[in-house]
Write a structure and sequence with these properties.
single chain, 108 residues, alpha+beta, three-stranded antiparallel beta sheet, 3 helices, 11% strand, elongated
Length: 108
């Protein structure tokens, strides 16, 4: 940004706030702002940060429910029933069934 534009902008903002500043004060404020913006430095770490891999725990109850639903669909004549995710989803024809386990509400 041009220093002159910044000075005029500072003076206009100060006047809007009801506290007008002199040109010298605006120049000083503009110089401080320019120096503050110029002194930013971004350093790159030598070693990149490792991303944490979270282990997904298997819920045996959910696995059992999904298997039972899939078995039921297969025995009732639905040949295209497949388990997409053994803890979550079954697909057949153009449908899918998603199993959701709801958490208990936290009491305050």
């Amino acid at each position: 940004m041009d220093k002159e534009k910044l000075i005029l902008e500072i003076m206009a903002d100060a006047e809007k706030d009801g506290e007008p500043v002199t040109r010298e004060e605006a120049e000083e404020m503009a110089e401080m702002e320019i120096k503050a913006n110029a002194s930013r430095r971004y350093e790159k770490a030598e070693k990149p940060r490792k991303t944490a891999t979270r282990e997904i725990k298997k819920d045996p109850e959910k696995v059992e429910i999904i298997k039972k639903i899939c078995d039921f669909l297969l025995t009732s004549g639905e040949e295209s029933a497949t388990i997409v995710n053994e803890q979550r989803e079954i697909q057949f024809r153009e449908f899918s069934i998603t199993l959701t386990k709801h958490r208990k509400r936290k009491t305050k």
